[in-house]
Input
Amino acid sequence: MSGVPDHLRRPVRGMRDWLPPQFYALRRMEEVLGAVAESFGYRRVETPVVEHFEVLAKKAGEEVVKEIYYFRDKAGRELGLRFDMTVPVARVLSYNLDLPRPVRWYYFTKVFRYDEPQHGRYREFYQFGVELIGSSSPRADAEVVQVLAASLEAAGASNYLVKINDRRAVDKLLESLGAAQYRDVVYKALDKKLKLPREEVVGIMTEGGLSREVAEKIYDAAGELSLEEAVDVLSKLDPKLGATYGKFVKYLEASVPLEKMRFDMSIVRGLDYYTGIVFEAFVGDYRLAVGGGGRYDDLLGLYSGVPTPALGFAVGVERLMEAVGLQAVEKPLDYYIYIFDDDAYKYAVAVARKLRAGGHSVVIELGEKSLKDAFEYALKIGARHLIIIGRRELEKGVVKIRDLEKREEVERPLSDFLA
Ligand code: HAM
Output
């Protein structure tokens, strides 16, 4: 028997199988992160994996549109797999206009991007995130960053750094340099600042039509600052923006350690729907961003026709798990029951029923193994106890319970389990 070729045994490129230990690790993340969102009053939402392609394509941006899994169904509908949850949430709210605002929702679910798979970059991956819809207050911005920080802390990533920018700051900078018409190419270049050397980033801008002098000025302006320093810089660029930012920093200061926050004008983000503050989160020396988000005040209006300010963030769950080293959670089996002949089966079932009712996991041997093989198998699958019901035990009216960790054996009356 040769079976299918190896590539058919593996998941589709860029996707992964979740065997039980990995899946339980994922579930643990889900519990921990979900509890943080819930504690801030966010409620969980889910939407279909399949979306109208038109909805997805509206404001994804050139780069992300290329990454949408696109297909037609049998009726000819143009569909796509969601590439994030922000867009589906915006769609859901466009026909639920009567929900009391602000709306606080969170999700932990699969999204899809036809990206070039590499380390930390998958085609199917999980995002945990929150969306806060219906407020333009800088307190909302501070709240969302605080939820992000609390999520990272709870996941065991207390060595995080959040890099914050405001797209309006970049726009003002460009205006002041007379380069407003080069916004797109500057965003594209700045987005690469963490990944490429200075020459190449400046090169993207000069190829896009900017003079070398202006391109270098932009590059140098996009360095890291403390949030307090950023308030001064933004106030000089635009007093109103500076004042709003000042409030945001004040609220943030009350809720998170500011030393874990940096202002960085190179954070512009790949998605097109952002309009205000944007941020990305990094953990320890894990190279890729584990999370990102920002304000998208124009997105909901595109679907509902009603302008609605909003912001949120999403964390890449696989990346976060890798950054904190949570890869596998073993789930031990509590009891493995071995019997010697079919007559004892009804006792095995009764014992198992009683133990299961008490919240334990119990497996009954299927009758194909010798005691020795069953014993080895029970050890391999991580069973804590082996219960033996043999002829001698039945005659005595007991079951033998062997603790496989402590290597101790006790006998318990069968009647304990039959009540
Ligand atoms: P995003 O930055 O595109 O933002 O994705 C959020 C996070 O998902 C990233 O920081 C990264 O950790 C993870 N991620 C992205 N692409 C991949 C991939 N190919 N493989 C594995 N992980 C990946 C958003 O999706 C926005 N919807 C966030 C947001 C919510 N903005 C406002 N609200």
The pocket of histidyl-adenosine monophosphate is lined by residues 84, 86, 113, 115, 120-122, 125, 127, 129, 131, 271, 289-294, 296, 312-314, 316, 318-319 (CB under 6 Å). The longest strand covers residues 103-112.
